[in-house]
Structure formats: C-alpha cells, structure tokens
Design brief:
mainly beta, 4-stranded antiparallel beta sheet, globular
Length: 248
C-alpha cells in the first residue's frame, strides 16, 4: 500500500507533513514517517521530527511547510471540508492527489515566485505481464529559478541503499524498492544515515527511540513551473529488474 497525507493540518501533535507518502510492499515497510522521538523540544531530534524535512514530502529552496503560522481557524475547524484533494479508482489504476499553497499556510521562509506545490500519485495495479508500481508526480508552480528536493525516509530495517545514475534502490537480501527518476536527470542524489549536524537520517519507531535509517534526497532545479516524476517499484531479490518506460 501507499499512503498519501493530503488532509488538514490537525488539532494536536501535528507535523508539517502535507503531501507526505508512506509505502509498504511485499511484506516490508519501505517509506515511513520519521516518527516522534520525544516531546522535549529542546532536543535536535524533536525539533527536526515535526518539520517537513523529517517526512517524505517536498522542499523548495531547502524550505518546508510552516502551517502552524497560518490563522488557527484555517486548519483547526474539523467541520470545514477538505476540497483540495482528488481520488480516482478503476480496475487498472488509482490516482490520489493534493496540493500545498497559501491557503494551507506559509513556508518556513519567504520563497519569492513560488505559488503552489502539487503531488499526484498514480498506482498501476499488477497485471499478468508486469508488477504493480507507483509514479509520484511533483509540480511546483510559479516563476523564477528554484531548487526542488524530494525526500524519501526508509524504515531502519532496510539495508543501505545503492545509487547508480538516476536510480536508487535498497539492498536487502529478500525484497527491495527501486526509486527511479523519470524525465530530466537529477542535479543531486544524496543519502544520509545517522547524521547529527544537521540532524537527519533517523527514524523513531517508538517513544524515546532514535534509530539510524537511510534518508534519500533527490534534487532537481530550474525555472518554474517545474515537474519531477519518480517511479517507485518494489521487487523481489537483490537485483532491480530492467525497466522500460514507454509513457507516463
């Protein structure tokens, strides 16, 4: 399954995680929320845990979401319907989509020219001639030259990832996940694990726990509007299958 968080901010214990995804396949958890760590905001772990940087979402020019600075009634009232999401399902595929813009709240700092972030997740269901897979499509709308980072936090039970050209995959002995950049080549693929300064590459599966875990950052940059697409393909065995992209 793949979960897309595109709802309202929440009334308590909320994180800056709109458009965050989590993914489990073939009996293994791959993409996860980094967790809560502790409720002590004096610790680097807690300060990081509530930010967009600790989630599988999108940063623009290194800045994440900052919904807590928006007017409280804009996200607190549970009676206000969520109108900025899409959902479609057929026998062959599913689509889920959401957005982040000024109606949700500001970013961590001013991003001149940036109007809106959109994320759409397409699930192609398994068929007789191919496995099931997801395509994640991110679009940043506005004007000007900007840097867009997609973050992928892996469950700590996964072995370290391997990076080759525009592909990233886990190296477990049994089942794995391939993340393949589609379209324009990334300007950066970076991996972090158990880094303390700055704090990144950690997962807290239970309160008070901090486990080193793979965090993958995939960067693209250019003039807005800018679109970035990623194939998420679970597979069995140690070696990723050959992938042919006809259209998407």
């Amino acid at each position: 399954y793949l979960l897309l968080d595109a709802g309202r901010y929440g009334q308590g214990h909320h994180h800056e995680d709109k458009l965050h995804i989590e993914l489990m396949a073939l009996g293994r958890a791959f993409l996860v929320d980094a967790g809560r760590f502790t409720y002590d905001y004096a610790t680097p772990a807690r300060q990081w845990a509530v930010t967009s940087q600790a989630h599988n979402t999108i940063l623009v020019d290194g800045a994440g979401q900052c919904r807590w600075k928006a007017p409280r009634l804009g996200w607190y009232d549970v009676n206000v319907p969520v109108r900025d999401t899409r959902w479609r399902t057929t026998k062959a595929s599913d689509l889920a989509a959401g957005k982040y813009d000024a109606n949700d709240g500001p970013f961590e700092r001013e991003l001149p020219g940036v109007l809106r972030i959109e994320r759409a997740v397409h699930f192609q269901k398994p068929a007789t001639n191919r496995p099931g897979f997801w395509i994640v499509s991110d679009a940043v709308h506005g004007t000007g030259h900007h840097v867009v980072d997609a973050l992928f936090h892996l469950h700590p039970d996964n072995a370290p990832v391997r990076v080759e050209n525009r592909a990233v995959w886990t190296t477990n002995a049994d089942v794995n996940l391939l993340i393949l950049v589609l379209g324009a080549a990334p300007s950066l693929i970076a991996c972090y694990r158990g880094q303390k300064e700055p704090f990144r590459g950690w997962v807290s599966s239970s309160y008070g726990e901090a486990l080193p875990a793979e965090e993958v950052e995939i960067r693209g940059e250019g003039e807005l509007p800018l679109r970035r697409d990623y194939l998420l393909l679970p597979f069995r065995g140690a070696n990723p299958p050959a992938v042919t992209i006809e259209s998407y």
